[in-house]
Amino acid sequence: MFPVIPTVQSDWQSCYPGVTLDLQRANPSRDGAGVTEALPISAFLEMSDGNILDKQGIPTDKNAYVYRRSDKGGRWYLYFYDKESGKRHRFALKSQTNDIPEPTSAGAEKAWMLGVEKFIELKGKSERGESVRGLRFEDMVEKFLAKERKKISTTPHTGISEARFRLLNTQLRWVSEFVGDTRKEVHKIRRNTFLNYEVWRKERAIQYGKDTPQNTTINQEISTLRRAFNEVAVAEGFINRDSIPELPSIKLPKDKKHRRDDLTENEWLELEKCCRLYWIKGKTRILNDEYEMKQNSQGKWETKTNVQIKSERGRIQLIHREMLYLAMRISMDSGIRPGSLRKMKWKDITENTTIPVAERKTWVLIDVPAENTKTGRSYRCSAPIAKHLERLRKISTYTKPNDFIFLNQTRGTQMSERLWKDGISEALVEARLADWSEDDSNNCRKIDVHSGKNITWYSFRHTHITLRLNAGTPVPVIAANCDTSMKYIEEHYFHYRAAEQTEILGKGRKSLGKAEEHLDWIEELPNANKVKVTTVATKRRHSTAKQVNK
User: Fold this and answer.
1) In this predicted model, what pLDDT tens digit does every residue of 330-342 receive, in sequence order?
2) How does DSSP classify residue 246?
């Protein structure tokens, strides 16, 4: 059986334009035939060597050829030697529709064409410094996750947490579902493949009965995918950086960036009051048939006990509730991160000797070591939490300098994640800021917050920053005291209002020129963006003007 081979240069170039031919140098015939003459079969076929049958050389490269393997049922293969890496490769030939050429004369012609096509692809990848072997999308994801799994560590700032790894796994699972055929090699993924990911992601979430993902969630998934391409496909030479598909991020306006779910002032006051009066005492207010709180004849809320106060377990439960309540107060008054709050020890509290003695009973300093921070750097926080700490020392059994402040009073270990999560859920429900979800259970407490916000322990930090900004505390002071950046505060919390900053802007300016008359002429200017600001001084000026007119 003899393969069908292009006999003249024009036939070859019509099939593969731009490919340089040098058959004489690449695979010279035994009778000196030139590139424009028909080549004898002896120029391409040699005697079988083991499993190699019907060997057919590739023009321009003496180290590449198409052949059949006798041990593989006569299937056609391409042998390719990568000079750049010094590695030999063998590829089973098949079309894009997975058609395998048959071991016949017609199959030989088809195998020859597929072999040349594959050779051109491999030659280009080799010259660009890419890996000749392809990388399937699913393998890229597995390699990336395997690399991230090795980073899991319980030591702060030395790797990633298990929760972070689960998030990465979930993000890539969504992306893999979008790709569909995860066996596709990454260099064959079209550049516009992921341009429609945002629309698909939101529609698929609705189909699954899930909440529509935030734009920031979609951006994080795209960011993880971008990391997988760069850290695996590019780093290991399967593609170059320019071959990465377009991975668009959703651009968010400054005022539309992911807002931190905080509590309003009224929500916080209601939560604090209900915790103090009911929750930490093991009481809950009774609801009537219309889901409204019932009042007795004296106008007081009717309550019932939901904790067995007389038992030892009930006593410990009430102590834990009060400790969590005080943790809310400390978080609200300091802005400390939940992770740092849980790891806080008694030795981290120091006296502020730079303030008057009377104020030292209110304000203390919290030294947060680097291993307990998100940023990996230590900082000192000033907060009016002396009263809360004093109460914690009275109800806690563990008050040695090296003891954690928030410890399980039964085991002497740090409070579990479940205690923290269930505690805030119970407090929100008691304050009537949330209801228990339909799928709530004792094993997994779930609530539906009335405002639709995702209230967590981080919300107290966000509320602290928001309230301090509203009170006029300078942004640099808040940033330093909360271990964050001014840019982060400006993007997520702070909205500059020039009309409210006049007093601050005037500090340090001893002599400022004044207009001789009132600026009533400003009101006559046609300015669509004009915002009328009424202050106490403005009202006083108008009152004086009316008296003068009288």
Assistant:
1) 999 999 999 999 9
2) P
